[in-house]
Amino acid sequence: MAALAIYDDNCTALRHGFGEPVMLDEWQLASVYRSHGPSVFRRARQLLRVEADAYEVVQEVFLSLLERPEQFQGKSSVMTFLYSATTHACLNRMRNASNRERLRREHLLQPEESSRELNAEQLVMLDRAIQSMPDELAQVAIYYLVDGLTHEEIARIMSCSRRHIGNLLTRLAEWGQKQEEAEPC
């Protein structure tokens, strides 16, 4: 049976008995699925724009957690971990060569009220750029440009320092500049 230590939103182990972290078996993980599954689905649907694909990502994320519980290292809350894992799973799906053309036709990233001041054209350009962007830069681009998260929020999700996020955003800008210069006129 798989076991998983669960942490609360303050990154503190939930304790039971003699100071041991609470360990979840499959039945308890099902409870986590019931409580956090809808949020994971909303995140996947926001990024993928296709409900069926979003459902698949939800299943992949929770199945992965069941099969490899050690991937949750307790450095953050379960929801933060699931948010990051969902974003990563969606990015992988977006990069899948068989989906690229369909995603471009559907303009994967439609403008939303929650997006920063990016218009529809900019979001489509971002979608295309993400297809060839290094993974870490793609994650930062989505968190910062689409979700409007702060450096601190992104650092918490990606388990790194705010300074590293600043460096990644600088690299993102440089990457974009190089891509722009490389495009034929």
* Total individual domains: 2
First-last Cα distance: 58 Å
| Overall average pLDDT | 76
Order of helices and strands: EEHHHHHHHH
Report the CATH topology name of the largest domain. Rna Polymerase Sigma Factor, Chain: A
Rg of Cα set: 18 Å
| Amount of helix | 55-70%
Strand content: under 5%
Query: Helix count?
Result: 8
User: Pairing-aware structural class of the strands and helices?
Assistant: mainly alpha
Descriptive terms for the model:
2 domains; globular; single chain; two-stranded antiparallel sheet; 185 residues; Arc Repressor Mutant, subunit A; mainly alpha; 65% helix
In short:
This protein is mainly α and 185 residues long. The chain folds into two domains: 1-108, Rna Polymerase Sigma Factor, Chain: A; 109-185, Arc Repressor Mutant, subunit A (Orthogonal Bundle). It contains eight helices and two strands; from the N terminus they run ββαααααααα.
Describe the structure.
The protein has 185 residues and is mainly α. It folds into two domains: 1-108, RNA polymerase sigma factor, region 2, helix turn helix motif (Rna Polymerase Sigma Factor, Chain: A, Orthogonal Bundle); 109-185, Arc Repressor Mutant, subunit A, CATH 1.10.10. It contains eight helices and two strands, in the order ββαααααααα. It has helices at 26-48, 51-67, 78-95, 97-105, 120-132, 135-146, 151-158, 162-182, and strands at residues 15-16, 20-21. Strands 1-2 form a two-stranded antiparallel sheet. Strand 1 and strand 2 form a beta hairpin.
